[in-house]
Design a protein that fits this description.
The radius of gyration is 28 Å and the shape is globular. α2 packs across α4 and α7 packs antiparallel against α8. With about 775 residues, the protein is α+β, with helices and mostly antiparallel strands. About 30% of the residues lie in helices and about 25% in strands. The strands form six sheets. An eight-stranded antiparallel beta sheet has the order 14-15-16-17-24-21-20-19, with no helix packed on it. Strands 2, 3, 5, 6 and 7 form a five-stranded antiparallel beta sheet that branches.
C-alpha cells in the first residue's frame, strides 16, 4: 500500500522506546532489533517491511504481519548490506493505515548472529512432559545414576542437609495478615516476602530432592505444602497489587510444585493448582503488558524482573495447557530478544547499580537457563550478556565497601555473595577466568551473610550451587593484572567510569569510580551525576553515605537520592532533581565526554549541566575532570553561571575529619586520605563538617553509625574553577605529593610531584 503522507509518529521521549535502527545506529548483532513508539496506546498491531530497496519493490521486500507489539526481532540473520524499513498500523479488519517514515540502516559483516525463532516454530523442541523446569526426564535419570555413584555429586549432599531437611518437619507457614489499616509498613512488607520465599524453598527443594531420590516422604510433604499455598487468597495479601514481591515468590513456588509433582496429583488437584497458578500468572502478565507496558516505557524495575521470576517458569509449566500463557511467553521472549536490558547496553552496564544488577541477573540467568533447556533458545549470545560480567568486576570490586552508586540493600557490607554467584554464571557461559576469580574472592570474604534479608529472602546458595555445577563447567580463575584489566573502564551505555590500580591485591588496590549518566535519577539511581567514590588500601574513603532502609523511606528520599549525600557540588545550596517525576528524573542527566588512559594517568571529563537545570536554571555549564595518577587523584571542577552564585563542594566519609585551612584529612582504620584545595578561582573556600543525616527519621537508623560530611563553600562569583588533590595513604607508608602553580595565558598550570614524577594539570581561567 502506498500513501501520500507517512503515518503520524509520536515524538521520541526520554522514557519511551526509541525508533531503531536508523542511519546513526551502529549495529552490534545481526539481525537488528526493530522498535518504534506505538501509534496508539491500546490494541496496537502492526505490519513491518524490511527491504533492500527504498521503493520497497516486491522482489526485495520482506513483509511481516501481524506484529503484536512495537518491537520485532527477525527469525533469521540479514545478509550484510544496506536496508530500509517501515511499519504501519494494522487495523482490526486486517487492513493497514499509511506507512511510517522510511529509515535506513547498514548491516556490517561478521556480527554475532542472534535471531529469535518465529512464533510458529519457537517451541518446536519443547516437550509436553513434566517436569519442564531444570531437569527433564533424561537428565533426571542421569542425575540419579551419578548421585548413586557419588553422594556429593554437584553438592547434592549439602543441598539436602541444609536446604531440604529443614522443611520436612517445619510447620506450614500461615497466610500473611494484612497491613494495619491496609497501609504498607516496610518491616511487614519485607516479612511477607520472606515468608513466601520460605514457601518457595519448601516446595521447590522438597520436590526436587524427593523426585531425584524417589523419596515418598519428601514428595508427600511437598504436595502438602503446595496444596496449602494454593488455598491462600489469590487476591489477598500475596497478590501482585498488595505485595508484588510476595506474589512473585508464590507464583514461582506453585510453578515448581505443579511441574515436578504433576504425576502425583489427581486430576482434580491438577485443576485446582493450575487454576491458582494461572490466576497468579495472569496478575503479573496483565500488569506487565497492559498496565506498566514495558514495551512502551521500559523503565519499571519490578515489572521487567517479573518476566524472569514469574512469566518464564509459570508459562513454561502451563504451555499448551492454558491457551493464554503462550502469548505471555511469546511477549517475554520478544522482550528479552529486543529490549533487554533497558538498564544497559552492549558494554554490559546496569544503570541502577550493582545490587540491582545482582537482583536482575539472578532471575534473568535462571530464566535463560530454563528457556535454553526447554526451548533451545540461547539468549546468552546477545552482546549485553557476553559483557555484563565486566560491570561488577570493575564497579563493585570484591574488596570494596560503600564504593558503588545506586540503591544497595547491602550498603556497608562486603560485596554480596550472590553477586559472585551471578558473575560465575557468566564465567560458565563465556569461559572468562576473571569472572571466576571474582567469584572465588567474594566467596572468601562474604562468609556470614546467608541469613541476612537480602540473601535469605531472595535465593538459596546450595540450590544455586547444585544447579550451576550440573549445568556448567568449572572455569579456571585468572587474577587481574595490568595486562588483562583495562586501567580506565568506560561503560558508555550507562555513563560510568572506573579507574583501577592493582585490583588483585586488596592491600594495594585503589579504585576511583565516577558517573554521569543518561539515566539521571530514574528508578534506583540517584541525583549524583559527576559524583565520585574512592576506595584505597582496603579503606572506603570517599563513600556512598547513608543506608538503604527501604524504598521511599525518609532516608531514601531525603538523603540517599539527594545530591547532598554525594561527593559532588551544590549550587546556591541546590542539587540535582531526584524526586518522583520520572520524566524529570531522566532529564536530570549527565554524560561522559572523555574517558581514557593517557601517558602515566587515567583521565575522564563528565558533564552534568542538565542534572541541575530543574533547580538551577541559570547554570550554563558544570564539567568535572578526574585525573587518576595511580596513587593519588586530582579533581577539577568547572562551573559557569549566568548570574552570581556560590558553590558547596561536598565530600562524604565514615570518619570525622581534621580541617585546617584549605585541607581536610580522613583517618581510617587501614588508610588515611589527605585532601587539599590547591586552587579556587574565587578565593579560599570555607570548610565545615557535620555528622548525621539531614531530614531523616531517627527511628529508621536507630543503632546505625552516623557518617561525616564536608562542605567547602566558595565566595559568590559567576564562574568557578576548583582543583582538589586527594592522596590516599596506607598506614605505615607515609606519602607526600607536592605541587606548584604558574599562569600560562588563560590557563593555570598545576604541577604535582610524587617520588620524582611530575604531572601537569591545566585549569582554564574563570570568567
Amino acid at each position: 500500500m502506498t500513501s501520500l503522507s507517512p503515518l503520524y509518529e509520536p515524538q521520541s521521549g526520554v522514557l519511551t522506546v526509541q525508533y531503531e535502527p536508523n542511519e546513526q545506529t551502529v549495529l552490534l548483532e545481526n539481525p537488528p532489533r526493530f522498535t518504534w513508539i506505538p501509534a496508539q496506546l491500546e490494541h496496537d498491531r502492526y505490519v513491518l517491511q524490511i527491504s533492500h530497496s527504498e521503493a520497497f519493490s516486491q522482489a526485495d521486500t520482506q513483509t511481516i504481519k501481524p506484529v503484536p507489539y512495537n518491537l520485532y526481532t527477525p527469525d533469521d540473520a540479514l545478509t550484510p548490506g544496506t536496508y530500509f524499513w517501515r511499519y504501519a498500523l494494522l487495523q482490526e479488519d486486517g487492513t493497514q493505515t499509511v506507512w511510517s517514515l522510511i529509515r535506513r540502516f547498514e548491516v556490517p559483516a561478521d556480527l554475532p548472529e542472534t535471531p529469535l525463532p518465529s512464533r510458529e516454530r519457537r517451541y518446536a523442541e519443547a516437550s509436553s512432559q513434566h517436569p519442564r523446569l531444570w531437569l527433564q526426564s533424561a537428565e533426571l535419570d542421569a542425575f540419579r545414576s551419578a548421585l548413586a555413584a557419588d553422594q556429593t555429586y554437584c553438592g547434592f549432599d549439602v543441598f539436602y542437609e541444609k536446604s531440604v531437611k529443614p522443611w520436612i518437619e517445619l510447620e506450614l507457614i500461615a497466610e500473611p495478615l494484612p497491613y494495619p489499616g491496609n497501609k504498607r509498613v516496610a518491616k511487614l512488607w519485607r516479612q511477607m516476602y520472606m515468608d513466601t520465599q520460605e514457601a518457595l524453598y519448601a516446595v521447590r527443594h522438597l520436590v526436587v530432592a524427593g523426585t531425584i531420590l524417589n523419596d515418598e516422604t519428601l514428595l508427600d510433604r511437598a504436595k502438602t505444602w503446595l496444596l496449602h499455598l494454593c488455598s491462600w487468597d489469590v487476591n489477598g495479601t500475596t497478590s501482585r497489587d498488595y505485595n508484588d514481591e510476595a506474589s512473585f515468590r508464590m507464583a514461582g513456588a506453585i510453578a515448581w510444585g505443579y511441574d515436578w509433582l504433576y504425576a502425583r496429583l489427581t486430576e482434580d488437584e491438577r485443576k485446582q493448582v493450575r487454576q491458582v497458578l494461572l490466576a497468579r500468572t495472569r496478575q503479573i502478565a496483565q500488569h506487565v503488558i497492559e498496565h506498566s507496558k514495558i514495551h512502551h516505557v521500559p523503565f519499571d524495575s519490578h515489572a521487567v524482573r517479573s518476566l524472569s521470576s514469574v512469566l518464564v517458569p509459570c508459562c513454561i509449566v502451563l504451555l499448551n495447557e492454558e491457551p493464554e500463557v503462550r502469548e505471555w511467553l511469546d511477549y517475554t521472549l520478544e522482550y528479552y530478544a529486543c529490549l533487554y536490558s533497558p538498564w544497559g547496553g552492549p558494554d554490559g552496564g546496569w544503570a541502577e547499580g550493582p545490587m540491582y544488577w545482582t537482583t536482575g541477573m539472578a532471575f534473568v540467568t535462571e530464566a535463560m537457563n530454563l528457556l535454553k533447556k526447554y526451548t533451545g533458545i540461547n539468549f546468552y549470545k546477545r552482546p549485553f550478556f557476553t559483557k555484563t560480567g565486566d560491570f561488577p568486576l570493575y564497579t563493585f570490586s570484591p574488596d570494596t565497601l560503600r564504593a558503588s552508586f545506586g540503591d544497595q540493600s547491602t550498603l556497608g557490607d562486603p560485596v554480596s555473595l550472590k553477586t559472585g554467584f551471578n558473575i560465575r554464571q557468566f564465567a560458565g557461559v563465556t569461559g572468562n577466568g576473571l569472572y571466576q576469580w571474582y567469584f572465588e574472592r567474594v566467596r572468601e570474604t562474604d562468609t556470614d551473610s546467608e541469613m541476612k534479608f537480602y540473601n535469605y529472602g531472595w535465593w538459596d546458595f546450595r540450590f544455586d550451587e547444585m544447579v550451576y555445577r550440573h549445568d556448567y563447567p568449572q572455569v579456571e580463575a585468572i587474577a587481574p593484572t595490568d595486562a588483562n584489566i583495562e586501567p580506565v573502564k568506560w561503560f558508555r551505555d550507562i555513563g560510568w567510569v572506573a579507574f583501577h590500580s592493582q585490583m588483585a591485591d586488596p592491600e594495594r588496590h585503589i579504585m576511583l569510580l565516577t558517573k554521569s549518566s543518561k539515566y539521571g535519577s530514574v528508578s534506583h539511581s540517584h541525583g549524583d551525576q559527576n559524583g565520585f567514590l574512592l576506595h584505597a588500601y582496603g579503606e572506603p574513603l570517599a563513600i556512598e553515605s547513608g543506608y538503604y532502609v527501604a524504598f521511599s523511606s525518609t532516608m531514601h528520599m531525603n538523603w540517599r537520592r539527594q545530591t547532598r549525600s554525594t561527593n559532588n557540588i551544590l549550587i546556591d545550596g541546590m542539587g540535582q532533581y531526584a524526586e518522583k517525576n520520572k520524566v524529570l528524573n531522566m532529564a536530570a542527566n549527565g554524560f561522559v565526554e572523555v574517558a581514557e588512559q593517557r601517558k602515566g594517568y587515567g583521565y575522564s571529563r563528565s558533564n552534568a549541566t542538565a542534572a541541575y537545570k530543574e533547580y538551577v536554571p541559570y547554570l550554563e555549564r558544570y564539567v568535572r575532570e578526574l585525573y587518576f595518577f595511580g596513587t593519588y587523584v586530582v579533581v577539577v571542577d568547572h562551573i559557569d553561571l549566568s548570574q552570581v552564585g556560590s558553590i558547596d563542594w561536598l565530600f562524604q566519609t565514615l570518619y570525622e575529619m581534621k580541617l585546617n585551612g584549605q585541607t581536610f584529612k580522613v583517618q581510617g582504620r587501614k588508610a588515611d586520605m589527605d585532601g587539599r584545595f590547591v586552587y579556587c578561582s574565587s578565593g579560599e573556600l570555607e570548610l565545615t563538617q557535620h555528622e548525621g543525616f539531614t531530614d531523616v527519621d531517627p527511628a529508621e537508623i536507630e543503632g546505625l553509625p552516623l557518617h561525616w560530611h564536608l562542605k567547602a563553600t566558595t565566595k559568590p562569583a559567576r564562574s568557578h574553577r576548583i582543583a582538589t588533590l586527594l592522596v590516599p595513604i596506607k598506614h605505615g607508608e607515609p606519602k607526600y605529593v607536592s605541587y606548584f602553580m604558574d599562569d600560562q595565558g588563560f590557563d593555570t598550570h598545576i604541577y604535582f610531584t610524587e617520588d620524582g614524577v611530575t604531572h601537569r594539570v591545566e585549569v582554564p581561567k574563570a570568567y
